[in-house]
Amino acid sequence: MEKRGIVGFAFGTDSSILSNERIGRIASYEAKLSNSAVFTQLDVHIERGVEIEYITDGVGNPPPTLRIARGAAQWAKRLGVAELKIVAASPHRWRCKRDLEYALREAGVKAKVLAHIPLGDEGWFCENSTQTRTRSPWRWWPREIILRLLPMSIYKRVAG
User: Fold this and answer.
1) Can you tell me the distance from the alpha carbon of 20 to that of 45, in angstroms, rounded to the nearest whole number?
2) Burial class for 88, CB neighbours closer than 10 Å (0-12, 13-18, 19+)
3) Domain of 38: which CATH number?
4) Whether residue 57 has a cis bond before it, omega within 30° of 0
5) Distance CA 88, CA 90 (A)
6) What is residue 60's predicted lDDT score, i.e. its pLDDT?
7) Which domain holds residue 26?
8) Contact 96, 10 (CB under 8 A)
C-alpha cells in the first residue's frame, strides 16, 4: 500500500479563525481516515493522535504558499510518501496544488497530488483574520489573480 500524506494550507492567521479551524478538522479527519501524517502550518490545529510536522519558519508572519509546498515536498521525500492530499480553502486550493506539484518536481519527488473538495465554498473569508487579504473576496482576488498569472520563473522569486 502506498504511503499517503496530508498537507494543510492555512487561510489567514491565526489558529482561532474559522477557516483554519475548518482546515484543521478536515486535515485531521483525512489523516485518521487514511492513517496518514500531516504537514502544515502553526495556524492549523491538528487533533491529537495524528502524526504531524509543522513548517517552523514564518512564526508571526505566515510563510508563502510556495515555501510551504517546498517544505512539504522535502517532508514527503523523507517519509517516502507516494500520494499527497491537499486541504486548503477553496479560493486558495488551485495555487496550493500548482505550487505543491512544482515543489515536488523541483525536489525530484514522484508523488500524486490530490485536493480535498469540502462541501460548500462559504465560510473561508474571516473578518477577524490578522492577514487582511483573507478577510474578504474583494481583498483576496486582486492579488490572487496576479499570482496565478505570473510565470513560475517570476513567481518563485516573489513567493519563494
Assistant:
1) 8
2) buried
3) 3.40.50
4) no
5) 6
6) 61
7) 4-159
8) no
pLDDT averages per 10-residue partition of the chain, 160 residues: 91 92 96 97 95 82 92 97 96 97 97 85 88 95 97 90
Q: Which of 49, 115, 44, 108 is nearest to 80 (CA)?
A: 108
User: How many domains does the structure of the chain reveal?
Assistant: 1
Cell numbers representing residue 136 in the block: 474578504
Cis preceding linkage at 99, omega within 30: no
Other C-beta atoms closer than 10 Å to the C-beta of 110 total 9
**CA distances (Å), 81 to each of 4, 55, 75, 97, 145, in order?**
5, 17, 8, 16, 31
